Structure formats: C-alpha cells, structure tokens
Amino acid sequence: MSEIAITLPDGSVRRVPAGSTPVDVAAGISPRLAKAAIAAVVDGRPVDLTFPLNADARVEILTDRGPDALHVYRHSAAHLLAAAVTNLFPGTQCGIGPATDEGFYYDFIVERPFVPEDLEAIEKKMRDLAAQDLIYERQIWPRQEAIDFFTSRGEPLKVQLIQEKTQGQTGVSVYTIKDRDTFVDFCVGPHVPSTGRLKGFKLLNTSNAYWKGDAKNQPMQRVYGTAFFSDKELQAHLQRIEEAKKRDHRKVGKELGLFTFHHWAPGSAFWLGKGTTLYNTLANYMRGVLFPAGYQEVKAPIIFNRALWETSGHWDHYRENMFLVTSSDNEEMGLKAMNCPGHFLIFASESRSYKDLPLRLHEQTPLHRNEASGVLSGLTRVRQFSQDDAHCFVMESQIAAEVERLLRLVQRVYGDFGLQYTVKLSTRPENFLGEVATWDHAEASLKQALEASKQPYTINAGDGAFYGPKLDFDITDAIGRSWQCATIQLDYQMPERFDLKYVGADNAEHRPVVIHRAILGSFERFIAILIEHYAGAFPLWLAPVQAVVMPIADRHAEYAAQVRQRLEAAGLRAELDARQEKINYKIREAQLQKIPYMLVAGDREVADGTVAVRSRSGGDQGARSVDDFVRDAQLEISAKGEPAAGLAAAS
Ligand SMILES: [Zn+2]
Ligand SMILES: [Zn+2]
Fold first, then answer.
1. Could you say which of 75, 352, 369, 517 is catalytic?
2. What is the pTM of this model?
C-alpha cells in the first residue's frame, strides 16, 4: 500500500498509509489526542475526522481548545437541534443553522410559533439523541437525487439552497445523524464525530426571522442555543447572560431615571436630570485630564458645505451615513459625523511652525450618523452622540513620543474607572495608500511607544485603516465582556487631502501627521458600558446623587435641610427626602436608586449635630459629624476608582 506524508503544525512529518483519516493520524500521535479530537484542518480546510487522506497534506487536529473547534462543536449542536425539531414536529421545514460567536441557531418554518414548553421538549429530545451517541455521517449524493429527496420531503428551502450552492457539481454533500430517517441535512460540514460528543448545550430563546433575512420572504422561527465543551463553561456563560440582563443599561437607565427615548427622535437620547449630571461629570472629567496634557478644547460647526465632505472623501464613501440638509440659499450641507475635517480647517486657518507642534485639538460637540432605525439599540448604537475626540498634529519625528504620552493617558483614564484593557496593533492592510517605507516607519514608531511604556500588545496583521496603522483598546467589564473603546490612529492621507503644512526648522514646508484619538469614545456608549460594568452602582465620584438626607419625622426636616445645604456647599451632590414615609421605606428606595450614602437625622442627631450614616455597600456606619462625613466623602471622590461588583459578588 502506498504511503503519504503528513506534516503536522510543529513541522514534523509522519508517514501513513494512503486513505488514512485525521483520527488515524491523531491515534498515531497519542490515544488521548484521538479521544479529544473534534475535527481537523487539512491543507487549511476544516474537515471531519473521517476525511480520507489520499495525498501528502498538512494536517492539524482540532481538540476542545480554540475557537475553530468550538465553531464545529456549536454547528454540530445546531444539527442536533434540527434533528430534535423535525422528530418532534413532523412537517417542519429547515432553513439554515450556523454557529455564532455566542452559540448557534437554526431557522424553521413551523405551523405555529414555538412556546417555552416546546423549547424544553426540544432540548430534552436533543439530550436523548446525544445520549444515544449517534454518528454524524457525511454522504455524497448525486445532485439530482438530493434535489428529488428534499422535494419529496417537502423541504423547498433546502432544494433552493442546493440549486443555488451546487451549480455545476455532480455530487452534493449531506450529513445524516444516525440515518436519513432520523435526520439528514444538506451541509458541507465538518461536524463532531458523533452526538455523544456534545455535552454542554442549552436552548435559550426564539425569535422571528425571515428566510435569508429578508422581510419580503416567509416568516420563520429562529431557535437560539449555546454550547460549550464543558458543562462548567456553559454554566458560567448562562450566569453571565443572566447577569447581563440584570445590568442591561436600557433597563437600569430607566430605573435610575438617567435617560429616555421618543420615537420621534430615534437613536437620540433625552438625557434627564441625573443622566445629564452623569454625562457632564464624564465630559468635565475628560476636560480635566486633557487640559493639563496640552489639549485645547475647540468647537467647530456642526453643519458643513458638501465641499468639505468632498475634500475629506466622505461625500463619495460615507454620504449614506450622513444627514444631509439644504440651506435657505440652496447649498447642499451635511451634519458632521466626525470632528476631523473641522479640526483640519482649524489647523489650516493660520500658518503653523514646527514650534507649534504637537498641536492638540479636543472637541465634544454632538455628532450625527444616519443609522438605519432597525440597528439602533439603547445608547450603544445611536444617531446622535458626542466623543472625547481629539486630533494631534505632529511632525513625523514626534509620533513615538506622542503615542507614548497617549498610552499613559489611556492607562490613567481606565485606571480611574477600574477597567482592565488589552491593546492591539493593526498593521498595513492590502489596500493601503502611500509608501511602504512610510508605513514601516509609522508601525515602528507605534511599537517603540508600546515598548517604552511597557504596554503588552498583540498584532492584528493587515487590519490597519487604509490611511495608517492604529492601536485599538479593548476594555473588560465586571462580568468579563470585552468592549472596544479607545483608538489611536495614525493618518498620512488627510493632511494631503487638506493640504496641511507647517514650516520646519529648515524653513521649508512639511506635512504634519495627524493622530486621531479617543479614549472613552462616544460618551453615550461609554455610559452604557459603565452602567453595565457597575450595575448602576456608580462609585461616589460618578454617582449623579451622592448622598440623600432623610429626616425620621417632620420635626427633623429643618435640620435635615440644613445638612443638605452644607453638603451642597461642600460640592457634594445631595438630595433631601422629606416625604412623610417610614424611614425604612426611604432607605429601601435610596438603596434601589443605588445612592452611595444615606444620612438619617432623628432626635439624637439633631441634638448632637450629627448624621447617622448608611452606605450603599456597607450598611450602617454609625453617627458622624457632618464635617467628618464631608471630609471622608471628598477623599473618596478624589480617590475615584472603586472596583465594580463582578459575577461572584453580584450573584
Ligand atoms: Zn452542518
Ligand atoms: Zn478623527
């Protein structure tokens, strides 16, 4: 029998008989590997473990580690779901069932929408099928036979998929679970070897869907589920979903009276009193950070003539995302979706010398993006927002030092919120503009800055913007989700388009480089992240109401009002709750409003000139003089960061 050469990821070569399969290769390495194997990658293509190897190949065995294997595992769970549904609900038509980053789903046409009891029954059936450890078998059917088979089954959607996706092919790849009566699906694979491999899965919910996502097509029922290699990972994920629901900023924002929406202004928040306080606290915090760091705050116009957008290139490439308006004398105008072009006009508004650089312009005016109403979501996807946006105009020789300063700034800001983060360096993409040498220099400058500030980072090769390389920052919230926030982008193209220049020490004109940078990003989105990170329990420095003073009875109301005035005079945000309610009721309400401190005033406090302090997290703190409370609160405010309650603490 002829032998073939199998090259493994470590570069080693094994000789095996032709016709061997990846699972044979795995078994030849170790029985344990064969047991842990889920699927394989042969010459870059994911395949089943039973894939016949007939020629020399590079083979990688996928085990229960890594995203590729998880993808196969989840997609296999989608088949199991469809098998359970078609067994329980004969006559169901199957659509598609892909794996996702969070789990998997499958779309069906059913006689009536699924109810929660159906999901329970379906999941139970899935467990039955998993317990039977049925084989996922790949078969190649003649194309016409496959079309006839699915037609006779009453599955026109599958027939349509086969016709669209296998034109010109003679054979069609299908997969059975056990046999074609138990379940068969048109699919190129790969899958796990058998249903018994699927351990940690759970159906989550259903939603309405349409065939091919088009509302003109037939309505379908989408069943969502998730799957993990182990039950432990699954349980952790389910707990995270529950926790995320509790923390949903749309829910918490309403409960805390921070913001509201109206359908006449989709995607644009109405900031209520407390929300505006929070917003302004963040905005002023950033001003307080940026002003000493050498930034000037500017305010450019919001509406610009289309000529500006033509110069920036947005008219050609971004117009559909902008709100366009016409002036009374018929000028075509666009609402700005980003601050950069305005800052370029400010830079160009006077002659600049190398002595003026770096020039750092910061702006928080509102921006508008014409997002489709269907994609809008709470504060995370909006039409109107503001950013802690800035542009640094530098000489090429200043890039590394400026980026290093920015890295320190990011470190400090996220530290103030108690947020951990990671950094990615995205390098030259295929469709880059400019010279390779310029790119190399820019990337080297970014690396130099990262190394100088001892910032660990990963490289996203080829993921830079077409105009320059960039650094992206992902923060991790209290329940382990990651959010991309800060970005630092080098730009060599806009200075060309806007013909920006400065006079160098050599008296000649040069082009500056622009660094686009934001740390929080959009205030709206960052507030959404903070609400969910802190579960609404903001640390003292951010809390819209920092303390509430509560008289026990009417006769204490006047004293309580004086206490509140003293707190306000000391710069604390304090409320008075003088309603004729029981003190325990008031405390419970303040607790639900997540107010950090409750100051109770009764006979003894009035007599002693004190307040009985309760803290949101620590309960009763005993009586203190008002001055002592103010001093401690001010210390706590200036210390800022309070760790947010994570999963363990919150549950
Ligand atoms: Zn499949
Ligand atoms: Zn910009």
1. 369
2. 0.83
